[in-house]
Amino acid sequence: MSVRVIARLDIKGPNLVKGIHLEGLRVLGRPERFARHYYEAGADELLYLDVVASLYGRNSLVDIVARTAQEIFIPLTVGGGLRTIEDIRTVLLAGADKVALNTAALRRPAFVGEAVRRFGSSTVVVSIEAIRQADGRYEAYTDNGRERTGVDALEWAKRAADLGAGEILITSIDREGTGKGFDLGLTRAVADAVPIPVIAGGGAGKIAHVWEVVVEGGADAVSVASLLHYTAIRHVDRAETAGAEGNTEYLRRNQPGFSGVDDATLPEIKAYLLARGVECRPTPSVTSNV
Amino acid sequence: MSDAPAPRVAIVDYGMGNLFSVKNACAQAGMSAAITSRREDVVAADVVILPGIGAFGDAMRALADLDLVSVLRDVAAAGKPLLGICLGMQLFMTESHEFGRHRGLGIVDGEVVRLPERPEGRRLKVPHVGWSRIRPPAAAGLGEAPAWSEPLLGAVPAGDFMYFVHSFYCLPADAGAVVTLTSYGPTEFCSGLRAGNVVGFQFHPERSGSSGLRIYANLAASLHTTWESGNGRTAGSEIRTA
Questions:
Q1: What ipTM did this prediction achieve?
Q2: CA distance B49 to B206
Q3: What are the Cα distances from residue B68, in Å, to B41, B84, B161, B198?
Q4: How many separate domains does chain B show?
Q5: For residues A226 and A259, is the Cβ–Cβ distance under 8 A?
Q6: Distance (Å) from the C-alpha of residue B92 to the closest C-alpha of chain A?
Q7: Which of A23, A40, A144, A197 could form a disulfide with A220 if both were Cys (CB 3.0 to 4.6 A apart)?
Q8: Measured between CB atoms, does B116 come within 8 Å of chain A?
Q9: pLDDT digit string (tens) for A129-158?
Q10: Which range, of A81-90, B53-62, B147-156, B232-241, averages the lowest pLDDT?
């Protein structure tokens, strides 16, 4: 069984952004450019998460998805603000292959079952953003880690699988954007609890972290963001971003890299995994431009 | 009836799956393709692609509601290239065991069964989601470069990775129909089949990067050959299925 390495792109308005603990978002550039770069570098999938849930309108998520889908030929999962069956249909018609459901599913779990019946299990990823509590349990949060729900993350993962979800994306908000490594205990607990594939997210700051969450956390797939973005930014044309809205201070400094995370590319991650006996799809040599 | 020219590739829309990516992959390979639910478009096309994601029973019901069952059987019988992807491939079979028993299109003899979650005592995640290798069924002798019997796989390296997302797989009655095999843990399954003009892939070539796009390019090239040789076209609806 091959492990998947998924490039996660958090999107705000027209921009790729990155925060820490899902907050303090800085603008990194145009998501389509990064998506194209990761596709060519051998990403196994792409994950677009709209942090402000602006599905419709000018420069909306739907537009970005449609532009991306025309030039990448790997699976694209889209999440953020999907509240209705019609919302799901809209992003699928724009070219998404799967959807990630979080807030709307937690508010009304039956939504997961309805989405599964309409679009099939394999189209529905339930995204769980969890924060570790003082008693060691994990609680599911919504709205980018701002709203607590009182729902136990592990119980919710099991319930989502029972409702027919095809995959679980489990993100540790405690680790998200920090580069300190994945929450291995959380990942292992979810991976053991559900019969469906589990994608680990939040915390990759070194290539070794990716390996660790597969071997020790039992992850079937790994989502990485900062680890790739701060390296990729050197390869992606940023000219377009000059007039970008939002917190562009990072871009203007023009000093790529980020103190919390190593430089890493997808071919390096794949080579590292393969060298340590973790099966994955190597970066196709013909299309690699890194 | 519209006066628009018939699409060379008809991507059958029965409300299930990401048809957009199939259309983009066709465009990338230089094929004009249309997403359609109309019988006449399917009959007029040079190639018919049956994609699909979701449940087998729902899919057969949707095809029946759209009155597309007989036309797909006609396309198969007429010798026109018919490509099934993922659930589309499974629909070709005689029957499926997904949530009970469902009759399929019956174009290819065989059945559809579920991936075991505990094969040989090992725990496997189902659905099978991700990139897995495809290889020729008759693994040639050691040291011998295995070759595809399937022309659509031309220039795809044996053992290359393709993207899968499925819980069920096809068991064709005729082992000779199997053109690619894939392993998921200890389970080995048919990931590609051909019966005459009918080809099915369990993986998604349109989501399998440059390797998958090669399959669409091969399809475009085969279409071109048929086109040049002239009267390869048959009015599908005039042909009765056996």
A1: 0.91
A2: 12
A3: 11, 14, 33, 16
A4: 1
A5: no
A6: 19
A7: A197
A8: no
A9: 999 999 999 999 998 788 899 999 999 999
A10: B232-241
Q: Which of A19-23, A198-202, A216-220, B157-161 has the lowest mean pLDDT?
A: A19-23
Question: Residue B4: inside a domain, yes or no?
Answer: no
Q: Are A68 and A94 in contact (CB under 8 A)?
A: no
The active-site residue out of B26, B166, B204, B238 is B204
Residues 6 or more apart whose Cβ sits within 8 Å of residue A56: A62, A90
CB contact under 8 A, B21 and A74: no
Cis amide bond preceding B127, omega within 30:
yes
CA–CA separation, B87 and B96 (whole Å)? 11
Query: How far apart (Å, rounded) are the C-alpha atoms in residues B107 and B50?
Result: 13
Q: What three-state secondary structure class fits A234?
A: coil
Give A165's contacts in chain B (Cβ within 8 Å): none
pTM of the model: 0.90
Q: Assess if residue B84 is contained within a domain.
A: yes
B167/A196 Cβ within 8 A = no
Q: Which parts of chain B fold into alpha helices (H)?
A: 19-28, 39-44, 56-65, 69-78, 87-91, 209-228
Confidence of residue A118 (pLDDT cuts 50, 70, 90): confident
Domains defined along chain A, listed by start: 4-275 (3.20.20.70)
B47-75: average pLDDT: 94
Give the structural domain span for B113: 9-236
- CATH assignment of the domain containing B181: 3.40.50.880
**Chain A partners within 8 Å of B127 (Cβ):** 121-122, 166-167, 196-197
Quote the tokens at residue A245: 């809205």
Q: For residue range A26-56, what is the model confidence (pLDDT) as tens digits?
A: 899 999 999 999 999 999 999 999 988 766 6
A174 carries an active-site annotation? no
With respect to residue B241, please indicate whether it lies within any of the assigned structural domains: no
One-letter identity of residue B188: E
Instruction: Confirm whether B242 is domain-assigned.
Output: no
Mean pLDDT of chain A: 89
Is the per-residue pLDDT at A239 higher than 80?
no
Question: How many Å apart are CA A146 and CA A23, to the nearest integer?
Answer: 9
Q: Percent of chain B beyond pLDDT 90?
A: 72
DSSP H helices, A2-84, are 31-40, 61-69
| DSSP 3-state of A26 | strand
